[in-house]
Design brief:
Blueprint lengths: L2 E6 L8 E5 L10 E4 L8 H4 L15 E3 L5 H4 L2 H6 L6 E3 L1 H28 L13 H7 L3 E3 L6 E2 L4 E7 L7 E9 L2 E7 L29 E5 L13 H13 L4 E4 L5 H14 L8 E4 L1 H12 L6 H10 L8 E4 L2 H9 L5 E4 L9 H8 L6 E4 L8 H6 L4 E4 L2 E4 L3 E4 L9 H8 L8 E5 L3 H15 L3 E3 L5 E3 L2
Bound molecules: zinc ion (ZN).
The site of zinc ion has 5 residues, from loops.
């Protein structure tokens, strides 16, 4: 009998891995396809699962279908290859391009972490080892196979799939899987992460097109529930943003923006350009301090088929962000240090988005003690991170072993999320052509998943269940 087994992102928002086994009608063992192969992140009890082998040996998995290039969906791929997987990894070309920078960077961070633990001798394991190295991540890239959006791919006589747009980040897709089982064709839809609805005021600054594919037909849906219990503010954030930046500049301060190097940084850079050119904020230097962000801009420019009309128009008018006058993309550590010397009001965008590491630490160490400056958050800050501490204005925060007083103004704009919220999800689900027999919710904290389940049951009358870790469900 064909089944799905949830090997991650069940009861939590990371580690997405859903295994399809096509069953064993011929007695030769079913084909095994993994939808996403993400890293567990966050609390230790989940991260430790990155180290255990999956219940299904990597060697016996025939293919991976990857929805998008976020680490919680792709970050375990190098480990899967290390454990013996040798099949194709299907993804869109922009996803493959982004994985080409994200996975080696992740390997590099794993190596640094292991080195750190060995130095302070903190690890239970001696010596501490990286989950995978930069070179192993690089090596895993050879298994990626590009697939066009809406192109059908036959994996075996029983199973085929195609990608349709998810509008979450550049290259992101949902996977529609068709499975022949017991003489019937079953349609399975794996949502990956679902982007915002088609409204640029609600989802401001979308560089990539907004709106997930509509009019889906499915017998079984595996769907994310990250924002199952939270709604995004619906006001246009640009007037508030312009006000905050202008006030900071007028008092001689700078704006420091912690942002993830991929997608969020590009989105914000386009918004700042728009505000400057339309005279809504003063013309001031903009520094984008992240080597990964530069690589990501190049990938964005390569894939203009994914742009919104507004973004296409801005590039037609102003050219590549890498050439915009007044915008500096810092690549080397020396270029990064030069930003610290800038005393005139400026905007500094740097990663990591939750201030857990990266070059943003230098900028905050220098600018947090000065009340003229503004630290602006445009992304979620998980409890326990430095970003969370700064956003909630604790008195001081530890950076490079020193306590830095938080005297700068802080502000947060919550509109920039790349996930649909419950009203948007309902709007999207109402476009389905049929009512799926069953929907499994994944990729959510327990409370978020259960609230979304209740909402979908009440508003749509759908049969919705919350996926459990390692649970096997039959595709009947
Ligand atoms: Zn994602």
């Amino acid at each position: 009998m064909a089944y799905i087994q949830f090997l991650g992102a069940a009861g939590t928002v990371t580690g997405s891995k859903h295994l399809i086994n096509t069953g064993d009608p011929s007695g030769k063992g079913g084909l095994q396809v993994l939808i996403d192969c993400g890293l567990f992140q966050g609390p230790k009890e989940w991260r430790e699962r990155n180290w255990s082998d999956p219940p299904v040996p990597a060697k016996t998995i025939d293919a991976v279908i990857l929805t998008h290039a976020h680490l919680d969906h792709c970050g375990w791929i190098p480990r899967l290859v290390k454990a013996g997987f040798r099949g194709p990894i299907y993804a869109t070309q922009p996803t493959i391009d982004l994985c080409g920078i994200i996975l080696p960077d992740s390997g590099h961070l794993q190596e640094e972490d292991a080195r750190f633990y060995n130095k302070v001798n903190k690890s239970k394991h001696h010596p501490a080892l990286p989950l995978y190295t930069f070179d192993e991540a690089q090596d895993s890239l050879q298994y990626f196979k590009p697939v066009n959006v809406e192109e059908g791919v036959q994996l075996s006589p029983e199973i085929s799939f195609r990608f349709v747009r998810a509008a979450h980040i550049l290259g992101s897709c949902m996977a529609e899987v068709s499975l022949n089982t017991n003489g019937q064709t079953k349609h399975l839809l794996f949502s990956g992460d679902i982007g915002r609805v088609r409204d640029h005021k609600i989802a401001p600054g979308k560089v990539v097109r907004s709106g997930p594919a509509e009019g889906e037909t499915a017998d079984l849906v595996v769907m994310e529930s990250t924002y199952g219990n939270r709604t995004h503010p619906k006001e246009d954030p640009l007037p508030e943003l312009a006000k905050l930046v202008t006030a900071t500049a007028n008092r001689g301060g700078s704006v420091v923006v912690p942002a993830f190097a991929i997608e969020r940084t590009q989105k914000f850079v386009f918004i700042v350009k728009h505000l400057i050119e339309s005279g809504q904020i003063p013309r001031m230097p903009v520094f984008c301090d992240s080597p990964m962000a530069i690589k990501a801009v190049k990938i964005f420019l390569k894939h203009d088929e994914e742009y919104t009309d507004e973004t296409r128009e801005m590039i037609r008018r102003y050219g590549s962000p890498l050439q915009w006058p007044g915008f500096t993309f810092a690549s080397t550590p020396e270029e990064s240090k030069r930003i610290n010397a800038s005393t005139m009001p400026s905007i500094i965008i740097s990663s990591s988005g939750m201030v857990t590491g990266g070059r943003i630490l230098h900028h905050l160490a220098q600018r947090l003690p000065d009340p003229r400056n503004l630290v602006l958050f445009i992304g979620f800050q998980a409890p326990g991170t430095r970003g969370f501490a700064i956003k909630n204005r604790l008195q001081e925060v530890k950076i490079f072993g020193d306590f830095v007083p938080i005297r700068a103004q802080t502000a947060a704009l919550e509109q920039f999320s790349d996930h649909a919220d419950p009203p948007e999800l309902l709007q999207w689900l109402r476009t389905f052509r049929n009512q799926p027999a069953i929907t499994y919710l994944v990729h959510g904290e327990p409370n978020a998943s259960s609230q979304l389940r209740d909402l979908m049951t009440r508003e749509l009358g759908w049969n919705v269940q919350i996926a459990q870790y390692k649970e096997k469900v039959e595709i009947a």
